[in-house]
Amino acid sequence: MAELDAHGNVNIPVGRRAPEAEHARIERARAHGHLDPHVAHQFDDADQQRSAATLGMWGFLATEVMFFGALFLLYSIYRAAYQDSFAAASAHLSRWLGGFNTLVLLTSSFTMALAVHWARVGDNRRVARFVTLTMVLGAAFLGIKAYEWTHEITHGLVPGSMFRHDLFPEPAHARELGPSGFSRHAEMFYLAYFLMTGLHATHMIVGLGLLLTLLAMARRDRFGPRYNTPVDMIGLYWHFVDIVWIFLFPLLYLIHGPGH
Amino acid sequence: MHDDADHSSVRTYTTIYVWLVVLMLLTIVASYLNLGPLNLTVAMIIALVKATLVVMYFMHVKYSGRLIWVYSAGAFLWLAILLGLTFSDYVSRGWVPHRLPSLPTAGLFERPRVLGETAPAPSNQTRSNPRAIPRTDLSPSSTTKPTATQPSGLD
């Protein structure tokens, strides 16, 4: 008779199993109705499967950190070199819109965490409800972002031939020294801005698609204490996107100091 | 990880969420204060605290095994290496006097000094750096004058 742990999983110590013992385990479990259809055959039990999934997800998130990291590096070097230009450029962003969007995204992370919680408990109705809420908040974030982008595009802040250099005149205290490329460095700020917020928004759109599949699964009552890996993993992804914004917000919106 | 659900109760999530919102308001308030270079430090410390709260509680790293700790810390360690090594290059470029009057790639932070030249007086205005970009580079005639098709100005 197989030992069963608190979750009803067959519990035989890892690494002490001959193939025939493995076979016997499956047979015994099947006879007792304990073979978990959600546990893939290469895993010993649901816990091990969950650990493997979590580790894989964190490996992926580490590559994502480096993906965004290159853009943060670009931003940091240019900002360190051209602080005044960056501050002047940032003044054209609304810190209240950015702040409101931060609130929206933090709230969506909170509702996502609750969805993960209820998936672990096994309350699929609540999972569906909180996943829907997360999607609504995510869409609201993208809507506000789209509004901001529209504003910036129509006001000549897109880097390139349409960029309005006249919006960033040379500061008075330095005018006698000759042109310094002040407005071109402001243009660099908007290059970093559009790249970073664009990549972030792309991640949000992917996240919304993932949440849609979660919603469909929750509607079919798929999650429970022994199977909630999809909610858990997509939750990790969503929180990661939230963390990126936690850094983007002060770096892009809050650098122009008092008086704006 | 048997007791994840017990630890990460709704109450904990709510507490963390409230803290995150408080910290967000704090960072906005701090941005209105004139702290000089400390503004960036304060904003980054608050962002780091927020990120740590999200990683620890929302992403359950606090209740995860050591392998997850290594992976999550490793991600940010590599980011620190990326930023740290690159900045050690840029920041130190002006430190060693150079035989050539200027190098095209040098001087993002400080113009390299010619041998024998004394160090320039410290200045917090990047703009007043003697390294100035030539006027031809700017092509002001095509870019600085707004045309009729362009919007008239920001509100």
Give a structural overview:
The complex is a heterodimer of chains A (260) and B (155). In chain A, helix 2 packs parallel to helix 7 and helix 3 packs across helix 6. Chain A folds into two domains: 35 residues, no CATH class; 208 residues, Four Helix Bundle (Hemerythrin (Met), subunit A) (Up-down Bundle). Chain A is elongated, with a radius of gyration of 25 Å. Chain A has seven helices and no strands. Chain A starts with 18 loop residues before the first helix and ends in a 7-residue tail after the last helix. By secondary structure, chain A is mainly α. Chain B folds into two domains: 64 residues; 53 residues, no CATH class. Chain B has six helices and no strands. In chain B, helix 2 runs antiparallel to helix 3. The longest helix of chain B has 27 residues. Chain B is flat, with a radius of gyration of 24 Å. The N terminus and C terminus of chain B are likely disordered. Classes of the chains: A mainly alpha (260), B mainly alpha (155). The interface between A and B is large, with 77 and 70 residues.
